[in-house]
Design brief:
Elements (H helix, E strand, L loop, with lengths): L3 E5 L4 H14 L2 E8 L7 H10 L4 E6 L1 H14 L11 H20 L3 E3 L8 H12 L4 E3 L1 H4 L4 H11 L12 E5 L2 E5 L28 E8 L2 E5 L2 E2 L2 H14 L4 E7 L5 E7 L1 H17 L2 H19 L6 H13 L5 E8 L2 E8 L7 H4 L10 H10 L1 H13 L3
Parallel strand pairs: 1-2, 1-4, 2-3, 4-5
Antiparallel strand pairs: 6-7, 7-12, 8-9, 8-13, 9-10, 11-12, 13-14
This protein binds arginine.
Length: 401
C-alpha cells in the first residue's frame, strides 16, 4: 500500500506546493488538514477544494474555533500567561490544537507521517513535532521547507510549472500567523529592530493615536472564564471575538518585542491581541480581589513557568498538566464583574465587584467604624523584623563598630 502523509495545510502558496513536492520526493499520498482557529480569510470549503486541486488525495477540514477558545485560550487566560511578560502565546497555543487534528486525521486516513510548513529556525517546528511525538509516538514528522529544500523561489516555480490554482505574484514581505487569540507579524523590514512598525502591519487594531470615544465595558467572569459582556451572555469564543472588535477599535493590545526563541535566536515580533490583552487585564484585576495573597504570589511564578513551557512546545507535558491543576484550583472564586475603559491603546480597570471577594471594606477603611485593631500592628512588626534585627546586631559586632 502507498504510504500516506498528513500535511498541516493553510491554503497558502507554500503548503499548496508542499502537497505535490512531498508527493514527488517521497512517493507518498498526501492528505491535507486545515484547521480553523479563527484566522479568518477563506472558507474551509474553498481551502478543501484547493487542496484537492493541488493533488491531495483527501482533505480534512475542521472548525476548531470553539475548541481552541475553550481548551487553549481559556487556560492561557486563567494563567494570565505572558511569555517574557509581554506575549500572550498566540501561535504557541494554536499548534497543540492543530496537532490534535493532525493526529486524528493520521489515524482516520492511515497515515504514518505528519508534515508541516515550518522552517528550521523557529519555535513552531518544535511545537508541532513535540506534540506529534507525544500524542502519536509511532508517527514520523517531515517539514518540506526544512527537510526537502522547498524554498520560496522553488515554490513559485513549482506552482507555475504545474499550474496550481494559487496566487504566486502577490509578495507579502512579512511572515504572519493569526488566530482568534491574536496575530503575529515578523521578518522583512521588522528585522532591523530600530525600525518602527509601519501602519500596514496591523490588522486587528486601529491606530491608538486617533481613537474613537472611550468604550466602557463590563466583563463578567465565572471561575476565571468570561461569561457575559455588558450583561449579554457569551461563550469564550464570543467574548474573545467581541473584545477583539471593541478593544481593537481602541488600539488596545499592540505589542512590539524582541523575544527569546527556543532555538536560541532573539527575534523581533509585532503582535496584536486586543481581545486577549483586554481579557487578561480584566481577569488579573478580578484575581486581585478574589485570590488570597500567598496563593496569588505563588500563582505569578507558576504562570511564568506555564508560559515558558507552552512557548517551548511542552503543551502536552506532565509538568504543564500539573501546573494546570494548580491554576484551575486558584480559579474557584474568580467570579464577578470588572468594569474597564478602553481608549487610546489602553484598557484601564475602574471598577470591580464579586460575591466571592476578599476585599473587606470594614478592614480597609480609614473612616471611623473600621474593625481593624491597629494596636496589634506594633507587636507584629516587632516579631516580623526580629531575624533581620538579630543579624544586623551580629554584623555590627563582627565589623567592630
Ligand atoms: N514568535 C512567535 C512564537 O514563536 C510567533 C511565531 C509565529 N509565526 C509566524 N510566522 N509569524 O510563538
Amino acid at each position: 500500500m502507498t504510504e500516506r502523509i498528513v500535511l498541516a495545510y493553510s491554503g497558502g502558496l507554500d503548503t499548496s506546493v508542499a502537497i505535490g513536492w512531498i508527493g514527488e520526493a517521497t512517493g507518498a499520498e498526501v492528505i491535507a488538514v486545515a484547521v480553523d482557529v479563527g484566522q479568518g480569510g477563506e472558507s474551509l470549503e474553498d481551502i478543501r477544494q484547493r487542496a484537492l486541486a493541488c493533488g491531495a488525495v483527501e482533505a480534512y477540514v475542521a472548525d476548531a474555533r470553539d475548541e481552541f477558545a475553550n481548551e487553549y485560550a481559556m487556560p492561557t487566560l486563567k494563567a494570565n500567561a505572558l511569555y517574557q511578560g509581554h506575549y500572550p502565546l498566540v501561535s504557541a497555543i494554536s499548534r497543540p490544537v492543530i496537532v490534535k487534528h493532525l493526529v486524528k486525521a493520521a489515524r482516520e486516513f492511515g497515515a504514518t507521517t505528519v508534515a508541516h510548513g515550518c522552517t528550521g529556525k523557529g519555535n513552531d517546528q518544535v511545537r508541532f513535532e513535540v506534540g506529534i511525538q507525544t500524542l502519536g509516538p509511532d508517527l514520523k514528522c517531515i517539514a518540506p521547507v526544512r527537510d526537502l529544500a522547498l524554498t520560496r523561489d522553488k515554490a513559485i516555480a513549482f506552482a507555475e510549472a504545474k499550474g496550481l490554482p494559487i496566487e504566486t505574484t502577490k509578495k507579502n514581505p512579512y511572515s504572519i500567523d493569526q488566530n482568534v487569540w491574536g496575530r503575529a507579524v515578523e521578518t522583512g523590514y521588522l528585522e532591523d529592530i530600530w525600525n518602527a512598525p509601519t501602519k500596514d502591519i496591523y490588522d486587528y487594531t486601529a491606530t491608538p493615536e486617533f481613537p474613537p470615544a472611550p468604550d466602557e465595558v463590563v466583563i463578567s467572569f465565572h471561575q476565571g472564564v468570561p461569561v457575559a459582556i455588558d450583561g449579554v451572555k457569551v461563550s469564550p469564543l464570543q467574548a474573545i471575538q467581541e473584545l477583539n472588535r471593541r478593544a481593537g477599535a481602541q488600539g488596545v493590545g499592540r505589542i512590539d518585542v524582541v523575544e527569546d526563541r527556543l532555538v536560541g535566536i532573539k527575534s523581533r515580533e509585532i503582535y496584536e491581541a486586543p481581545g486577549a490583552m483586554a481579557l487578561i487585564t480584566a481577569h488579573k484585576h478580578l484575581e486581585d480581589i478574589t485570590i488570597e495573597r500567598e496563593q496569588a504570589r505563588f500563582k505569578a511564578s507558576v504562570s511564568q513557568r506555564w508560559a515558558e513551557l507552552v512557548y517551548d512546545g511542552q503543551w502536552f507535558s506532565p509538568l504543564k498538566r500539573s501546573l494546570d491543576a494548580f491554576i484551575e484550583d486558584t480559579q474557584k472564586y474568580v467570579s464577578g464583574d470588572i468594569r474597564m475603559t478602553m481608549h487610546g491603546g489602553q484598557a484601564i480597570v475602574n471598577g470591580r465587584r464579586s460575591d466571592t471577594s476578599l476585599y473587606d471594606f470594614d478592614l480597609a477603611t480609614y473612616d471611623t467604624g473600621d474593625t481593624f485593631d491597629q494596636s496589634q500592628a506594633k507587636g507584629f512588626i516587632e516579631l516580623w523584623g526580629m531575624s533581620s534585627k538579630v543579624a544586623s546586631t551580629r554584623d555590627q559586632r563582627a565589623s567592630g563598630k
